[in-house]
Backbone:
């Protein structure tokens, strides 16, 4: 067998085109397409009294101007509720174009299509909308208070859902626990902010009644299914392609954004290609956000800091609509216990509407909040009891011999939350050893002696990854010997073209450079789910493995008759099938594809050779293509995991607050991370380090700041501060590889891991540095200034 | 409300990656839009249109510039370089590009052309820079995927790739 590529630090297959400017992002396509621009509500809540589009129609170069009244059929219905839930009593989704009422500033009210974007924006500006402002609610606590303004004027209240679950006897243990503490924690609103905004390009062909859509999405298969239904077309007539996508981080898994429906619709209305590319301001006010929650926690502990029970009630801000159902708060609730044993645990959450941009998953999807709460609880328990918080963690860890471990509450797929494998104490020890705990403590003490504000922060997490329902893969061996593979989920930088090729290469014995992988193209494979929840390597990875294996069996059978040897004596190596021990006896894979296809006409380079082989291969058959065989060598297989797989990790940081600027400085940052067996260390490192940077943003810089009137006050990169290289520290990264027993490759997901614990780690470090509890994130220098001057350390 | 009037097209000659191109543009058209949509040079990406993210960075007269903050007309007479001009005609990657590949300096690839162009004028001196100096030199560019580690390593080591090649 060729050297195994699984586990190798292989350079990426996709880099060549992206480095040379030859990548193809949605806005790179079709420069002559008509361009759309949207008019978005200026008000967070208002009734639409009148829309006058006459000014827009007068602009030269305008091709179409549309409002709600122009939509028909399914396009005039509310956009779908993607993930219903039995407790979601009052779901709301928006119309593609607002009808009567707008419920957040940024909601799409009108659409203009014009010859170019400049003209489209001119015309959009000429549309006059008369609004009657309605009362606005932004604050989560106010939203659930009696007499609150209503997010939707016809609703009874602002509560979309109330969900609660309990393991054990929380009230009883709270009554008997030696110590009971009550705290409140507030993770606040933030956003994914990929460098490429969203973009949609649609091409309707009236002659064929087909539509092809290029969409900067994380879920092209879902978009396709939904569009087919809206357009009342067979799936075969609708294709959706996610070309190169400039980052996603969750915001692009939402389906459908209004623009994803309206751009294809306009293409059919006008009978011409139409394109829309989101600008950054639109992204701030029109693309989903996440993270806003308020947690009220009661914890019962013994004198040694063992957590006897935890009772968490939290409000989850779902924004103006809840298209993604209850996934985010369910994940928060299920992942809050993290690596700690909680015999008695209860959560209750209320998913609450506010007049803000809708909420759907952003990298981590409810987990950064969960870890923030749990890790702050650990720190505060230790502080109250005068214990070392590191020791408190050790006393509460789930032990390596306790797997599978049932958390006792539901997982996001509706099944139980059962951890498959891990070694939390081992990972923690590695973290402290890598940090050099004594040295770090001494560094801190010396700095403090100099009057510097230095603190140590630690945070641990468990991340459920690799959820179903399924993914598929199709793989074919082409006549030239190259291998072409495809899966339905799309790619936003995770290196899928490389890791899937590694899996296929190992199975078929084909050099990596001869394998091409296509993702997110429904023309290649129509069934699939999407790239989210750190699931691609696990779910699509195993679909690739199965398809490659099935293809190998098929190929081996044909090679066995062609070479006249038993299947067991065949070796797949260097792009050919060899007879074991007889090096000169072999056949290249591409030739076998030719052999499998008994053509009437002989053409092409290898035709004569193939005809000869085919004669031999099918010598005993009664017809050119024997019963049970088919032309070409290809396989299509699916993989559906029975349950998720749970990675984990722990981070430590030595942080300093600059007394003068109140800025955060990260002196050291150490990561221990375990995502099971690693397919490609280069890519896993990249995922973790990139996640960390996003986590630092979420801990300290990236708070979406709403005014009480529901206007985002920092809707630009000049005010919403994404870290530059100067804000990110050098990182010491260590991997553990505890294989998952739940799948053949032993892999777990990694996409979100790096982000999850960072707000907790930074808040713990700052609490230690300043000597005051930091119970909300993201923070800012301004807030640290206020803390420093309120309570001098 | 007055209806905005489409402005008249004007002739401009842009010199991009060494070739002079005669174009007709509206005075309000951004250089980034003209590069991308008139000349088809889509390697220059637009991430914020307000000059902060750096995805649209090109070289104008040898110096990094935000093409989203320039009108195409302003580029008349300047030597413009975009990412499409980096690799050799035979497809050999520029040492910077090669270094980005080796060190996983890109994930989604959207910010990458901007980083390459921003680093191009100074990468030969990057080996001698301190970590902080190098971070500051690149602090005009945002990357949301990599956490910058691979980018910093790539820029620091690109000149060694150039040397390897010189010796080969």
Residues:
């Amino acid at each position: 067998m060729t050297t195994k590529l699984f586990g190798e630090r292989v350079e990426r297959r996709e880099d060549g085109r992206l480095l040379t400017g030859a990548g193809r992002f949605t806005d790179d396509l079709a420069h002559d397409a008509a361009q759309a621009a949207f008019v978005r509500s200026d008000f967070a809540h208002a009734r639409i009294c009148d829309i006058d589009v006459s000014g827009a129609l007068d602009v030269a170069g305008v091709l179409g101007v549309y409002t709600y009244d122009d939509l028909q059929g399914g396009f005039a219905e509310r956009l779908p509720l993607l993930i219903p839930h039995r407790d979601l009593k009052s779901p709301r989704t928006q119309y593609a174009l607002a009808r009567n009422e707008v419920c957040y500033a940024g909601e799409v009210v009108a659409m203009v299509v014009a010859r170019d974007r400049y003209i489209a924006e001119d015309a959009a500006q000429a549309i006059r909308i008369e609004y009657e402002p309605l009362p606005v609610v932004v604050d989560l606590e106010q939203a659930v208070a009696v007499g609150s303004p209503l997010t939707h004027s016809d609703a009874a209240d602002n509560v979309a859902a109330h969900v609660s679950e309990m393991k054990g006897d929380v009230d009883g243990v709270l009554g008997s626990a030696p110590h009971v503490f009550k705290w409140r924690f507030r993770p606040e609103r933030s956003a994914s902010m990929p460098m490429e905004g969203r973009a949609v390009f649609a091409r309707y062909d009236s002659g064929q009644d087909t539509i092809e859509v290029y969409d900067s999405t994380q879920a092209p298969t879902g978009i396709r299914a939904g569009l087919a239904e809206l357009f009342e077309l067979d799936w075969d007539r609708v294709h959706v392609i996610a070309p190169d996508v400039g980052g996603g981080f969750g915001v692009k898994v939402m389906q459908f954004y209004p623009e994803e429906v309206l751009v294809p619709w306009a293409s059919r209305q006008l009978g011409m290609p139409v394109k829309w590319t989101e600008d950054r301001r639109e992204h701030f006010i029109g693309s989903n956000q996440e993270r806003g929650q308020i947690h009220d926690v009661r914890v019962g502990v013994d004198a040694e800091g063992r957590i006897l029970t935890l009772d968490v009630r939290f409000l989850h801000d779902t924004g103006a609509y809840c298209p993604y159902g209850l996934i985010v708060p369910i994940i928060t609730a299920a992942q809050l216990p993290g690596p700690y044993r909680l015999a008695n645990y209860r959560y209750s959450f209320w998913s609450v509407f506010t007049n803000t941009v809708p909420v759907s998953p952003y990298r981590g999807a409810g987990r950064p909040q969960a870890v923030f709460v749990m890790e702050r609880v650990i720190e505060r328990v230790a502080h109250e009891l005068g214990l070392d918080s590191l020791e408190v963690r050790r006393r509460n860890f789930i032990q390596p011999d306790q797997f599978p471990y049932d958390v006792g509450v539901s997982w996001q797929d509706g099944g139980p939350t059962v951890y498959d494998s891990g070694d939390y104490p081992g990972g923690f020890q590695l973290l402290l050893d890598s940090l050099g705990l004594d040295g770090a403590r001494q560094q801190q003490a010396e700095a403090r002696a100099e009057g510097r504000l230095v603190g140590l922060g630690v945070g641990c997490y468990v991340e459920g990854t690799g959820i179903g329902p399924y993914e598929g893969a199709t793989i074919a061996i082409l006549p030239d010997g190259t291998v072409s593979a495809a899966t339905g989920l799309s790619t936003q930088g995770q290196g899928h073209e490389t890791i899937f090729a590694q899996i296929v290469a190992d199975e078929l014995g084909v050099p990596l450079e001869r394998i091409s992988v296509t993702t997110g193209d429904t023309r290649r494979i129509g069934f699939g789910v999407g790239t989210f929840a750190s699931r691609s390597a696990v779910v699509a990875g195993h679909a690739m493995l199965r398809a490659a294996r099935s293809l190998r069996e098929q190929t081996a059978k044909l090679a066995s008759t062609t070479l006249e040897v038993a299947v067991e004596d065949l070796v797949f190596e260097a792009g050919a099938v060899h007879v074991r021990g007889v090096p000169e006896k072999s056949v290249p894979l591409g030739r076998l594809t030719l052999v499998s296809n008994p053509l009437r006409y002989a053409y092409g380079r290898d035709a004569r050779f193939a005809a000869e082989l085919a004669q031999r291969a099918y010598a005993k058959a009664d017809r050119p293509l024997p019963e049970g065989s088919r032309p070409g060598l290809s396989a299509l297989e699916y993989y559906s995991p029975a349950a998720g797989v749970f990675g984990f990790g722990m981070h430590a940081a030595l942080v300093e607050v600059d007394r003068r600027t109140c800025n955060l400085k990260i002196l050291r940052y150490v990561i221990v991370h375990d995502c099971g067996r690693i397919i490609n260390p280069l890519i896993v490192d990249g995922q973790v380090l990139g996640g960390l940077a996003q986590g630092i943003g979420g801990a300290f810089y990236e708070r979406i700041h709403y005014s009480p009137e529901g206007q985002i006050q920092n809707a630009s990169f000049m005010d919403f501060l994404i870290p530059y290289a100067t804000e990110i520290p050098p990182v010491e990264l260590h991997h553990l590889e505890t294989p998952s027993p739940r799948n053949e490759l032993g892999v777990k997901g990694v996409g979100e891991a790096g982000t999850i614990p960072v707000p907790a780690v930074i808040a713990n470090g700052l609490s230690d540095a300043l000597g005051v509890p930091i119970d909300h994130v993201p923070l800012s220098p301004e807030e640290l200034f206020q803390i420093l001057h309120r309570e001098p350390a | 409300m007055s209806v905005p009037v489409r402005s008249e097209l004007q002739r401009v000659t842009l010199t991009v990656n060494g070739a002079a191109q005669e174009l007709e543009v509206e005075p309000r058209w951004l250089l980034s839009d003209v590069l991308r949509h008139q000349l088809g040079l889509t390697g220059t990406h637009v991430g914020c249109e307000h000059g902060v993210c750096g995805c649209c960075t090109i070289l104008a007269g040898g110096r990094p510039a935000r093409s989203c903050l320039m009108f195409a007309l302003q580029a008349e007479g300047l030597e413009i370089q975009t990412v499409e001009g980096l690799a050799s005609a035979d497809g050999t990657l520029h040492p910077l590009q090669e270094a980005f590949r080796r060190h996983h300096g890109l994930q989604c690839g959207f910010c990458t052309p901007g980083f390459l162009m921003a680093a191009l004028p100074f990468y030969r001196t990057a080996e001698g820079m301190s970590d902080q100096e190098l971070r500051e030199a690149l602090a005009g560019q945002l990357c949301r995927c990599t956490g910058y580690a691979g980018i910093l390593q790539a820029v620091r080591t690109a000149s060694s790739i150039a040397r390897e090649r010189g010796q080969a």
About this structure: The radius of gyration of chain B is 17 Å. DSSP finds five helices and five strands in chain B. Chain B has two domains: 10-85, 95-167.
